[in-house]
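ping. complex inputs:
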Amino acid sequence: QSALTQPASVSGSPGQSITISCTGTSSDVGGYNYVSWYQQHPGKAPKLMIYDVSNRPSGVSNRFSGSKSGNTASLTISGLQAEDEADYYCSSYTSSSTLAHVVFGGGTKLTVL
Amino acid sequence: QVQLVQSGAEVKKPGASVKVSCKASGYTFTSYDINWVRQATGQGLEWMGWMNPNSGNTGYAQKFQGRVTMTRNTSISTAYMELSSLRSEDTAVYYCARGLNPLRLDVWGKGTTVTVSS
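pong. complex structure:
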C-alpha cells in the first residue's frame, strides 16, 4: 500500500481535460509545498512534469498543471492528446519518521479513448 | 546533452550484493544530487535515497537503512548504489536520477534491471 493515494485509472477523450488526484496527510502533501508529478510511458523512465506543486520544468507543455488543496494534490491535463496516455505518479516530501523522506503514490493509468 | 548512463542488467542469488553504476555527462556532476528509485514489475515507484556527489553525504529511506550504500567517484562522474542481502522482493528496475532535491528529479537514467533468483 502506497503512502499517497491515487485513483488506479482515469480516462478521457482527445481534447478533453482530466484531473488526477493524490491524497496524503498533513505529514506530507498537506504539510509542504513539495509535490511532484511524473509521467511514465511503458518501458521508459519517469519524466518530471510538475514540481513544487505547480511549477513546470522547461519543455513541459502548459497543458499540464498542478494544484493542491489541503491534503490533496491534483494534476490536470487539458486538451488531451494520444501521447498523454501513460502512467502518472505523484510524489511528496514526508516528515513521517517511519517512512522515507520521499513517498510516491501508487500511480494512475491514463487512457485516452 | 545531459544524460545518466546506467550499467547493465544483473542476475544475483539471494543473499548476494549488487552494485549499480550511473555515469553522468553533459553537466557538472557535483552540482546535483543523485537519487535512486526502484520499480518492481507492474508496480509503482519507490524512493531509496539520495547522495550529494560534492560532499558524499547521503540520506536513505528507512526501509533500506543498513542494506544500501550510495557512493561516487567524482573523477569519472559516476555514482554507485550497492544493495546487500538481496532477496526476491528486490527484483526490480533501479533508476538513478539527478535533482536539486529529491522532489525535483529532472534527468533519469534508463534503468538497470536487477533479478534476484536462486
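The first strand of chain B starts at residue 3 and ends at 6.
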